[in-house]
Structures are given as structure tokens and as C-alpha cells.
# Entry
Amino acid sequence: MSFKDIDNLPMQWSDHEDIAMALYENFGASFNESKIYRVRFTELMEWILALPHFEGKKEDCSEGHLEQIQAKWVYEWRDNNR
# Structure
């Protein structure tokens, strides 16, 4: 596997940081910190399930995973908007 293929690796619910980075790529700076924290978990789950290379199943999702993903998404936003 070459380095350029790293973005094509499958993601699961436990890949919190990878998912957060993909969400940031999709939504960019249009979702600021307060807006990210106001996203309903049902919406967040659907957005994650629609990500390319996401192979997790809806029934394996948990509130804990969504909380971690949401927090990592905020960190990603902060890192890119300082």
C-alpha cells in the first residue's frame, strides 16, 4: 500500500479522529465550534454513515462514539481556524 492510499482506508465507529477530519473536510469552516456542538446526534450519525470509506453499521453506533467524534471535530475545527 502506498502513502497516497491512506485516505482510502475503511473507517469504523472507533476511528473518531479520522471521522472528525472527514467531517471537517466536508463542512469546513462553515460549522464553527458552537454549531458543531448543536448538531443532533441523529443528524451526525447519518452524516457519518454517508462518508466515503465508512464501513461501520448503524446498529454499532453509540452515544459515546458520537460524543468523541463531535469533540474531535471541534478540535479539528480549532486547529484549522486559529
Notes: The radius of gyration is 12 Å.
